[in-house]
Amino acid sequence: CSPALQAARGYARPVMRRRKEVPSQLDDLPPTMLKKDYANLPIINSVDDVVKRLLSLEMASQKEKMKIKTQQLVEKVRRSPNDNGSFEVQGNCSLPSTVAALTARIRMYEEHLQTHPKDKNNRRRMLMDVDRRRKLLGYLRRVRYSTFENTCQQLGIHYTPAPAYTRRVTKRWLVKKAFCIRVFQEKQKLKAAEKLKQRTEGQERTRAARE
């Protein structure tokens, strides 16, 4: 190839688009914070700075950072420091069956889907967690409304009740409904005739026994 053609090919290279940086809920975690398993150890104050750095969030994975974030959200809705059994924090941080843990996981899925919008598997998991959290919040709203308001306010949740189920009325559906009603009525008539027949036979047997 000629130098001019090579230069043209060089100028014709496709432009690589930079991906937009998606803000994460983990950005507010300081990198010097220790991991969840090592934060409360009494010996941690006497170790070297290099060891502290290895045990800090600077070297931690996203899973370990999610544990810290989940613990922070649980602490927001906890009634007291020793509360591990209330509805809002049931199961503490180890089980993602609470509203706080579900909220942290849903936000993680949202951040992932902004970067990878075609990931259908994680989208399905996020929708399942959203439905589960809606059910828990709906129950909490019916049972203890003040706690429900505090939970939504502390976690930044905008709760919207599920819409009422409405079915589109079509001609086929009306005909099917009328047919089902007619079948039910005919079945009730047959049951009534059978009961009347059994009652009559029982009365005749009683009379025969008396005679």
UniProtKB/TrEMBL annotation:
The record's CDD domains line, in alphabetical order, gives: Ribosomal_S15p_S13e
Query: Which Pfam families does the record cross-reference, listed alphabetically?
Result: Ribosomal_S15 (PF00312)
Subcellular compartments: Mitochondrion
Matches recorded under Gene3D superfamilies: S15/NS1, RNA-binding
Show the taxonomic lineage.
Eukaryota, Metazoa, Chordata, Craniata, Vertebrata
> For this chain's UniProt record, which GO biological process terms are given?
mitochondrial translation
InterPro entries in UniProt: Ribosomal_uS15, Ribosomal_uS15_bac-type, uS15_NS1_RNA-bd_sf, uS15_ribosomal
Keyword RNA-binding in annotation: no
**Which NCBIfam families does the entry link to?**
S15_bact
Q: Name one GO cellular component term.
A: mitochondrial small ribosomal subunit
Molecular functions (GO terms): RNA binding; structural constituent of ribosome
Q: What is this protein called?
A: Small ribosomal subunit protein uS15m
Per the similarity annotation, which family is this? Belongs to the universal ribosomal protein uS15 family.
Q: Check the record and name the HAMAP family matching this protein.
A: Ribosomal_uS15_B (MF_01343_B)
Keyword list (alphabetical) reads: Mitochondrion, Ribonucleoprotein, Ribosomal protein, Transit peptide
